[in-house]
Amino acid sequence: xxxxxxxxxxxxxxxxxxxxxxxRRLSLPxxxxxxxxxxxxxxxxxxRHAATVPxxxxxxxxxRPRDPGAGVEENAVARxxxxxxxxxxxxxxxxxxxxxxxxxxxxxxxREAxxxxxxDLGAQEAVExxxxxxASGLEGAGALRPGTPRLMEPCEALLEALGDIxxxxxxxxxxxxxxxxxxxxxxRSAAYxxxxxxxxERQWGERLEALLADPLLQVxxxxxxxxxxxxxxxxxxxxxxxxxxxxxxxxxLRGLVENGxxxxxxxxxxxxxxxxxxxxLL
Length: 282
Prior knowledge:
- The protein has helices spanning 19-26, 32-44, 52-60, 76-86, 96-102, 108-120, 127-134, 155-165, 170-176, 185-199, 202-211, 217-230, 236-240, 246-259, 271-281.
- By secondary structure, the protein is mainly alpha-helical.
């Protein structure tokens, strides 16, 4: 499940800035707190300034150890820069090479952010390196990292990126398929989502819908976001009746409108029905 934007960032309240100030702060290598917020601001506001992508790439390449006095975690600026680049659409195409290089970084969180950004940008160049990282399957990429709750790879983000990029090659589908049996429901949800996006097979939409009844709210939230990302309009009723926040249901329904295709989904609800459901939640 892609990160939900957090407006409670340093400087986000009581310290409004404009694009020029965000660019100035991002160019301050000795002030990671200022850079952290600036990168978020530029992505959140879809900055189109000529300096935005070069400065974000510079921040992405910036690696630093954890500095408690600076108020940000290790590589937090680089992660925010990756997330911002993913929001900039075609303007961020020059950043793809840097994002691909970041997929090789030892920082799990940074690889995760880069994968999500590459998926957002539909970067076909990322398919091979992402598949390579997932190819070891449940016993490799999907295994628990010793002594931590983390997996060996950020599988959720990598799987979602493959679905978002949309390469329908059977070899890509074969890499994703083992993860439908992963022990963690969030990984299964990401795999169902990617397979639904790449194959359009109803079974994957139905498996995602089944997760909407999971006892864990976190899992229900993830399934909502994944159904929206896949644009699976057959899930309209299941989404609106899910025990979760209306704000997340609205995000999922917006995804059905933006990502769904009535022609591909037969008798599934049309756009007007989805918009009516959104109105009922407001």
